[in-house]
Amino acid sequence: ILFPPLFWAGNFITGRAVHNIVPPMTLSLWRWVIAMACILPFAWKPAKRDYRLYLAHRWLIVRLSLSGVVMFNSLVYVGLHYTSASNALLLNSFIPVLIAIFGAMFFGEKLRGIQAGGLLLSFIGVLIIIAHGDWKILAGFSFSQGDLIVFTAMVAFAFYTLWLRSVPPEINRIGLMGVQIAVAFIFLIPLWLAERAHGQLPHWTPGGIAALAYLGVFPSVLAYLMYNLGVARF
Predict the structure, then answer these.
(1) Which of 55, 1, 50, 45 is nearest to 225 (CA)?
(2) What is the pLDDT of residue 217?
(3) Nearest CA to 165 among 50, 29, 68?
(4) CA 154, 160, 161, 167: dihedral to nearest 10 degrees?
C-alpha cells in the first residue's frame, strides 16, 4: 500500500508537466496501451482460466474499469489543465475520507470513532506536509474548475476501491487487471477519437515520451497491481 500513493503522486506531477504538449485523452489511452503491453504476457493465462468468473461478475468489472481506469485517470488529466499538481495532490488526500464516508453511506460499512479520528489525523498530517508547517501556505491555495474535476476523479476512485472489495478472492488479480484495461479501451478509444476530431493533437518530445513511459509502467501496472493486492488482503 506504500508504493501506489508514491507512484500516483508522480502521476499528478507528470500529468501537469506535459499538459501543454499531450492532450488528456491521448495521455489516458496510451498509458494504458503501454500498461497492457507490459501486463498481457502475465495476465493472459489467468484471464483465460477465469473467463467464466468474469462473465458472472461482468457488471462489477465494467464498474471497476469505468471508475478506476477510465474516469479516475482521464478526469485527473483534464483537471490538471486547469489546476496545479499541488492542488491535485491535496485533493487526492481526501480519498481515504471518501472511501470511509461512501462505505458507510452506500455499502453498509460501519465508521467507528477511532477510524474517524485516524482519518482526521492522517488528513491533518497531509496538510502539514503540504504546508511545510506554515499554515499561511494553505491560506494561499485557491480552488478552480480544475479542482472540481480532480475531486470528481477522487470520488470515482473511492467507488473503485469499494467495488474492488467485492471481487471474489478466487479471481486472479493480474488477470483481472488485464481484463479491466481491455474493457476500459471500449470507452477510452472513442474519447481519444473525439479529442482528435476537435483538433487536440499531441506534440511529442523526448520528455513527453519519457513521461508516457513512466505513466504506463509505474502509476498503471505497478501501482494498480499493488493496490489491488493490498485491498484483497485487507
Answers:
(1) 1
(2) 95
(3) 68
(4) 180
